[in-house]
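Backbone description:
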Amino acid sequence: MVSTADVETGPAGGNGRDGSTDRRTRHAVVVGGSVAALLTARTLSAHADRVTLVERDRLPEGPEPRAGVPQSRHTHVLLEGGRRALEELLPGIVAELHEHGAPRVGMPRDLAQWQNGRFYRRTPSTVHLLTGTRPVLEWLIRRRVLADPRITLLEGTEVVGLMGDASRVRGVRLRERGARGRLDVRSLAADLVVDASGRATHAPDWLAGIGAEPAHEETLDTGLAYATRLYRAPESAEGTDCPGYYFVPGRGEPHGAVALPIEDGRYLVTLSGLRGSEPPSDEAAFTEFAALLPHPVLHDWLLKAQPESAAHAFRATANVRRRYDLRGRRPAGFLAVGDALCAFNPVYGQGMAVAALGALALRDALADPRRTPTTRRVQRALLGAARQAWDIAAGADRELPGATGNAARTRVMDRPAAWYVARVVDRAPGDPVVGTAFRAACALTAPVSALFAPRVARAVLFGPPRPAPADPPLRPETA
């Protein structure tokens, strides 16, 4: 299927001198059971005789959080670009999500959104979010993927290393989790191994263990932390036309929040803060923290709402990009996808969308009749699928105080674009032309270059300033 990172040879398992072959890859191993892992397995099943998913957890029968994904209890959204990609990969899945209660929230009409000192005008929505819980989405995808007889699942099993050498990976070494499995390490041969084990991947150790080089890591960390609690909306809010709230942290504003509807008429409320302003997981202090937001509307909502869970905290929010596309002593037959390749600050809600876009990129790279799908080419395609989300998240986080990491510094050549994008962000709440372009880029349905289109540029550079409204718009605009 794929070959070396440094030599343009053909698929793994080839018979010819160049490694090329006409036959299918026999066996692919995907490490992980996440959305990215499941969609990758689905894509590979069209090119392999069999695909094995290796997952550390025992997976639940239904839509329940699992221990290996602590962030599954927190707010998740599926951006519109991700929704389109997911539907292309699994036709009918969006209808299933709606059948299981996943709400569809339009922006800006359905949100009271505060950013840069003002609320957005609630004009007709130009993009939509799916705001159901991650366990429901993951369960529906898992049910579809594991129905394929070519895909099998090894649960309660962890990968402890790779088989092969610095030129080619030939499988994984794994063991059953728990005391009994610690000494029982066995081998599982494969033509391709895909790391979809998430931001806490052990791939650097695995690669070092076969004499290969780990990927160069780019990091950018704002120190943002967040806490989430489940609520039933107050009775006084029933029938209102504002189903969600969104406070975006930014310059001079270290606190953020989002309150979005989920299944069964409930809400997930997530409060966030930058380094030094972290939200508490204590239940009483959770509500008090909301009073620090720049407008009291969400704090007032929480005082009337009915809590239905404890508050859960999460702090692993750094942006991390692993550059497997760069040259180095890395083996053929090994790819990274999802958060194991590129993990984002969760405040931007990009992870699940990029997982779906990455699976589409993998599908297209493997099916391209014009080019041999070498490891390096496929890994470049996967990184390309994550590039816009990285540019958005990293670009925004570089502007926040206290950002650290080797990707935190703005280069001189990037300053004009950063200045322009700052004006876009400032104009977007009040100008529908700018707001439409900005939302499309953030939803991953249009390239960032759309922000520089002539009509948008005129509004950004020469549009009249708009006053910052002191109160959230109570009614959406009709035009």
